[in-house]
Design goal:
Mean pLDDT: 95
Structural class: alpha/beta
Strand order of the largest sheet: 3-2-1-4-5
Distance between the termini: 37 Å
Bound molecules: adenosine-5'-triphosphate, magnesium ion, fe (iii) ion
Radius of gyration: 20 Å
Subcellular location: Cytoplasm
Biased composition (Basic and acidic residues): 326-337
Oligomer: single chain
Strand content: 15-25%
Pfam families: TsaD
Helix content: 40-55%
Low-confidence stretches: none
Catalytic activity: L-threonylcarbamoyladenylate + adenosine(37) in tRNA = N(6)-L-threonylcarbamoyladenosine(37) in tRNA + AMP + H(+)
Largest sheet: 5 strands, mixed
Biased composition (Pro residues): 343-351
Number of strands: 10
């Protein structure tokens, strides 16, 4: 079974072709980074138009890369939310048109489920596993028991980790997107040189908070004379270390809880921690979490960077995980679509 996947929920227009045996025949991504960089962030209306401009070419390029035609495609999947609705509509309408014209099944995929299952596309891990989803819009710890079954253990009370990278990069004049820019700048900086807080360290729950870190960074930067004179590389390294510490500390708590909960039902399997989403591409964060996972006796799975940041291979794969359960063509796009609809919000301003 081979699925063509489409991703268009944010600022990349992507198409990929993946088979049930996990072979990735094509994984094309047309980024709008240059379009949005001049605005310092994604402008929804501009993004929607760019998706419309690029979608046909990206799909054609994926088929060409795979050396396939539509005759080789058994199903078509598209991100149906959550995300910027204009882009989601472009991708889902394209997918529905192909599904109708070719009489093949259509899958409306949750973008977050794409991230959540990406660890299974690049490894042979089974269920259950603990997932740290760290992306531009989300920072959550989830127990994943099956495709479609997620128990949220913790979430951010304010900004997502990727959002913290992006906002801090903007404050430091490092541009957009912030994560890769900060990782590059941090490589030649001293992570111990500037003291920043570690919000919620040691807390008894699995929640996160990053907005205080952003404020602290802005204050330090101002004290150091602003972007012209401040040691930006040291600031970047210190910020990256603070975010890594926060992610590691909260994940450590989640590993303890996860291990206790699963020890009775799954005695024979090794516990697994999967890190997914754009921030999972960060090497320093991976190294920090690796240490924590080793100490807790968890094996750790991080997809290659191309599968961490937004891509369509993960969308095709999420559909392959349930390819006998396609969706109707009238499935409506969902601007909001939580993985665990039953999750209760954390104390404070939870999302
Ligand atoms: P969501 O998946 O929550 O809807 P999104 O799709 O915009 O949001 P992703 O594309 O998964 O998010 O990830 C993008 C985020 O990852 C951005 O905030 C970006 O700065 C961050 N990011 C990408 N690469 C790195 C990196 N090397 N280090 C840190 N952060 C990174
Ligand atoms: Mg993106
Ligand atoms: Fe994403």
């Amino acid at each position: 079974f081979t699925i063509l996947g489409i991703e268009s929920s944010c600022d990349e227009t992507a198409a990929a072709i993946v088979s049930a045996d996990k072979s990735i025949h094509a994984n094309k991504i047309a980024s709008q980074i240059e379009t949005h960089a001049k605005h310092g962030g994604v402008v929804p209306e501009v993004a929607a138009r760019a998706h419309l401009d690029m979608i046909d070419d990206v799909i054609a390029a994926a088929l060409a890369d795979a050396d396939m035609t539509f005759d080789d495609i058994d199903g078509i999947a598209a991100t149906a939310g959550p995300g910027l609705i204009g882009g989601v509509i472009v991708g889902t309408v394209a997918a529905k048109a192909i599904a109708a014209a070719r009489s093949i099944p259509y899958y409306a995929v949750n973008h977050l489920e794409g991230h959540a299952l990406s660890g299974r596309l690049c490894s042979d891990i089974g269920f259950p596993y603990l997932l740290l989803l760290v992306s531009g819009g989300h920072t959550q710890l989830l127990a994943v028991t099956a495709p479609g079954t997620y128990h949220r253990m913790g979430t951010t009370m304010d900004d997502a980790a990727g959002e913290a990278f992006d906002k801090c990069a903007k404050i430091m004049g490092l541009g957009y997107p912030g994560g890769p820019a900060i990782e590059t700048a941090a490589a030649s900086g001293d992570a111990k040189s500037i003291r920043l807080p570690r919000p919620l360290r040691g807390a008894d729950n699995c929640h996160f908070s990053f907005s205080g870190l952003k404020t602290a960074l802005a204050t330090k930067l101002a004290h150091l004379g602003g972007v012209q004179t401040a040691p930006i590389h040291d600031l970047a390294a210190s910020l990256q270390a603070a975010i890594a510490d926060c992610l590691a500390d909260r994940t450590k708590r989640a590993m303890q809880i996860f291990a206790t909960q699963t020890s009775t039902s799954h005695t024979s399997t090794t516990n697994t921690l999967v890190i997914a989403g754009g921030v999972a591409a960060n090497k320093a964060i991976f190294a920090r979490l690796q240490t924590e996972a080793d100490a807790a006796g968890f094996q750790i799975i991080v997809p290659p960077a191309k599968l961490c940041t937004d891509n369509a291979a993960m969308i095709a794969w999420a559909a392959l995980e349930r390819h006998d359960q396609p969706d109707q063509l009238d499935f409506e796009p969902r601007p909001r679509w939580p993985l665990d609809p039953a999750a209760t919000p954390p104390p404070g301003r939870g999302v």
